[in-house]
Amino acid sequence: MNHAIARRKRELENYNAPLTIDQAELDAFWDAALQSYAEKPLDVRRESAESPFPGVTVDRLTYQGYDDTPIHGWFMVPAARRGPDGADAPLPCVVLFPGYTDDRGYPERHASWLLQGYAVLAVDVRGQGGETGNHLPLRGGAVKGWVSGNVLEPESSYYHAMTIDAVRAVDAAAAQPEVDASKLATVGGSQGGGLALIAAALNPKVTAIVADIPNLCHMDFGVLNSSSSLTELAQHLKRYPDRLEAVLRTLAHYDMLNLAPRVKAPVLMSVGWKDPVCMPETIYAVYNRIASAKTIKDYPFSGHEVSEAQNRERILFLREQFR
Q1: pLDDT for 121-148, tens place per residue?
Q2: CA 187 to chain centre
Q3: pLDDT of 190-204, one tens digit each?
Q4: Which residues participate in catalysis according to the annotation?
Q5: Any stretches that span the bilayer, and where are they (predicted)?
Q6: 299 marked as part of a ligand binding site
Q7: Fold held by 4-321
Q8: Residue 69 contacts residue 135 (beta carbons within 8 Å)
Q9: Cβ atoms within 10 Å of 216's Cβ, excluding its own
């Protein structure tokens, strides 16, 4: 086939963006960062909450993220989880991350996963919508939003804090007695898709990934072209053009373009070809570098959205991974 859609697909499949940081430097950065948190207690706390669902246990769960900010979430478990011997059996678990400025929502947002018989941990992202605050001290001014916070310093940036939070969300889920830690997926769309990818790249406990229209991909391209949260950094650079290289250096540490080789779990990704937020080039730049088992679903006529068709694909993908 040689129609426009087929040609565009071939262009994306062949898209190859150069890495933006030395791999040894990146590995050393993350090995040190993860080691510094390996022994820090999660301090997971659970408190029963009212459930709108018969047969589902809903708890408010908090754990300690980066800089000891308590990260708030829902932990939900279908009550009927009997194994062949009649005893309670541990369940596969999905860890859900929200889009930018959103939160974990009400428990009923996550009903489709509970209907599959999975435990669910749905978490806030620090400082954004929801109950979770942000203890990260700002060392300088920031433009509207969050992502420009300390953007000149990789190890103390907002990106660093929310990434460590996401990595520790996986640890918090794996530590729950109702969870089968050998069946643990990270799931999200947009910002949530980016966090699903980076949490899996940095936490080997993740066994499956669903990253719909993800951000944190090919971020140098995004800051130049995207209408996403990266516009906050574009605004910062409009004011301070001399900071370009420092900002790009920070972004390189959190760009899945560079972290793709660390992804070991099977991954399902989706992309809308008309998406001005998480643009097809950014997503394919990462997808093309992932070496684990992978599938991407193309939606040539979709923008920044996750369709009902893709919701079904997510369910079918995890059903296969959790068999």
Answers
A1: 999 999 998 999 998 988 877 778 889 8
A2: 7
A3: 999 999 999 999 999
A4: 190, 275, 304
A5: none
A6: no
A7: Rossmann fold (3.40.50)
A8: yes
A9: 29
This prediction's pTM: 0.96
Closest by CA position to 104, among listed 92, 113, 96: 96
SS3 for the chain is CCCHHHHHHHHHHCCCCCCCCCHHHHHHHHHHHHHHHHCCCCCCEEEEECCCCCCEEEEEEEEECHHHCEEEEEEEEECCCECCCCCECCEEEEEEECCCCCCCCCHHHHHHHHHCCCEEEEECCCCCCCCCCCCCCCCCCCCCCCCCCCCCCHHHCHHHHHHHHHHHHHHHHHCCCCEEEEEEEEEEECHHHHHHHHHHHHCCCCCEEEEECCCCCCHHHHHHHCCCCHHHHHHHHHHCHHHHHHHHHHHHCCCHHHHHHHCCCCEEEEEECCCCCCCHHHHHHHHCCCCCCEEEEEECCCCCCCCHHHHHHHHHHHHHHCC
Domain residue spans of the chain = 4-321
